[in-house]
Amino acid sequence: MRLLVLGGTAMLGRAVAEQAVADGHEVTCLARGVAGAVPEGVQWVQGDRDLADGLAGVTDGGRPWDAVIDVARQPGQVRRAVAALEPVSDHFVFVSTGNVYADHSGLATDESVPLLSPLDGDVMADMSVYGEAKVACEAAVLDGFGADRTLIARAGLIGGPGDASGRSGWYPWRFAHPAGAGGAVLTPDDPDLPMSIIDVRDLAAWLVRCADGGTSGVFDAFGEPDTLGGLLSAAREVAGHDGPVVPASAAWLAEHGVQEWMGEDSLPLWVSDPDLRGFGSHTGAAARAAGLRNRPVTDTLRDAAAYEEGREVSEPRRCGLRDDKERELLRLLGH
Ligand SMILES: NC(=O)c1ccc[n+]([C@@H]2O[C@H](COP(=O)([O-])OP(=O)(O)OC[C@H]3O[C@@H](n4cnc5c(N)ncnc54)[C@H](OP(=O)(O)O)[C@@H]3O)[C@@H](O)[C@H]2O)c1
What we know:
CATH class of the largest domain: Alpha Beta
Oligomer: single chain
Number of strands: 13
Low-confidence stretches: none
Mean pLDDT: 96
Distance between the termini: 57 Å
Strand content: 15-25%
Helix content: 25-40%
Radius of gyration: 20 Å
Strand order of the largest sheet: 3-2-1-4-5-6-10
Bound molecules: NADP nicotinamide-adenine-dinucleotide phosphate
CATH architecture of the largest domain: 3-Layer(aba) Sandwich
Number of helices: 11
Order of helices and strands: EHEEHEHEHEEHEEHEHEHEEHHH
């Protein structure tokens, strides 16, 4: 397959390009080169998708693309890509997100949940309208390529190696490096919260296979359904942790300045709003029926932790608690 990846310099796009090269495909990535470098074995075309002619380097080659895989979140970038590439490409795979859904209160849901309204305009100003922007991107691809030539993959939380957000790496790293006395680790007290992580390599492998096979449709692409408690147990297993696990209620954590999901002084893989309880609970069954294979989550957490160990954290982590903060909170809880 002659594959064009729009992206390829950040976590998922890079994994897609790497996988496609490993599978023997001819891979070109278009990106500015700001987020990082493309993997070895791909052809990099430098281009800025915010410019009207930013895709010229991949549309003027004369030979068509068998498939395009796009990770963009800006509707204008996607509209321009669809207009420029539809005449020269067979198939378009768009990486979307579970944030497109308008309702996250239901549990074990599928692709039938209603969507947010699409964002007006070409530019998502900030992440508060991320879901709306992705809805607009999805619509642009479906309008341009038609349902038979489009695959929309609505990813759940993506984890594993390269997860610079730290969300998948936090707990296995923390259990390996507890801040509290006697190895104590602070966690949210909500073990039954549905939550899952899709391994970046599993998602990449599936996207490449779908691109190669011309698979079309709209799919939730999530990890195996799990819970916060299950993920914490897996993280402890990976880290070999046998110290105390100290659960604290959402109200107590909020009172003591701990944020949910991510950000400074946060605990990830956790949201307390009942209206968001189903956010991590999409089953992803249709994608699995279409060939998505999820590796054991322990593998994902082990490799996310190894990535955490290996990277320089010179600026504040994007999630998790500072040692001194967590130690103080644990002390208040009697540990
Ligand atoms: N992380 C999660 O848990 C999660 C969950 C659900 C869905 N998703 C979706 O999964 C995908 C993740 O993609 P990713 O890991 O590859 O990371 P990303 O950070 O979303 O990647 C953005 C890519 O687009 C390129 N790009 C940005 N602006 C550009 C421009 N003006 N012109 C050309 N290229 C541009 C970047 O390269 P340069 O900066 O080098 O140009 C980079 O390769 C996204 O679609 C995201 O919405 C993520």
